[in-house]
Design a protein that fits this description.
215 residues; alpha+beta; three-stranded antiparallel β-sheet; 4 helices; 47% helix; globular
Length: 215
């Protein structure tokens, strides 16, 4: 019996570290013969493609909206590039929302539906056999890792607050199954986010030191 090959498909995908995870996932899908068509929060649409494409990503969620518009317009001048934007908050659909983001370079430290909210990760598709990075200058790479560290640090602070609240409820109300599950999930998130923040800070220091040596 001949199997029918799927020509189009969508996948719901979540990543503990979406900034790095999305790029690796899309390249694996491309190796399997599927090309990205669209990203909508945690939903990825693909189509079967005979050609091989590569994907590279960059965190741009800390930039001002105008800075990102100019940067994307510059990249768009290359007709071989196809540009997508993905959210750092997966599963969060963006319709008229606003968030406080202390790490951004926006004037009022906010991220909105009309600006960068749910569009913090830039994904560029290109047709080349060699891996490509959008940033090559050590100073720029250090700046990106600093922004990544600060973005995940904000999430870590929020998770720690919820973790302390769950401990407070367990202490005064006793251990119940819902709070025990919540505590376990928050502990896992705390560990994962702490590792991501530590790695981002380590890379920030490395590339910052390298940029100073070159100078």
């Amino acid at each position: 019996m001949k199997l029918v090959e799927v020509q189009k498909m969508f996948r719901i995908k979540f990543f503990l570290d979406p900034i790095n995870g999305i790029e690796k996932y899309l390249n694996r899908m491309s190796e399997s013969g599927y090309r990205l068509k669209s990203i909508n929060s945690c939903i990825y649409n693909f189509e079967k493609c005979a050609d091989r494409f590569n994907y590279t990503s960059q965190f741009i969620g800390a930039n001002a909206s105008k800075e990102n518009e100019d940067y994307i317009a510059m990249l768009g001048e290359n007709e071989e590039y196809k540009i997508y934007r993905a959210p750092i908050n997966q599963g969060n659909f963006n319709y008229g929302k606003m968030r406080f983001r202390p790490y951004t370079r926006e004037k009022y430290k906010t991220s909105t539906y009309w600006g960068n909210f749910n569009k913090e990760i830039l994904v560029v598709e290109y047709k080349d056999d060699k891996p490509m990075k959008l940033l090559t200058d050590n100073g720029d790479i250090a700046k990106e890792y600093k922004d990544i560290r600060n973005a995940y640090l904000q999430g870590l602070v929020g998770v720690l607050f919820l973790l302390l609240y769950s401990l407070y409820k367990i202490y005064f109300d006793g251990i119940t199954l819902p709070y025990a599950i919540l505590f376990a999930i928050l502990m896992i998130l705390t560990i994962v986010l702490s590792i991501v923040v530590f790695k981002a800070h380590k890379n920030f220091r490395k590339y910052l030191d390298d940029s100073m040596i070159i100078e």
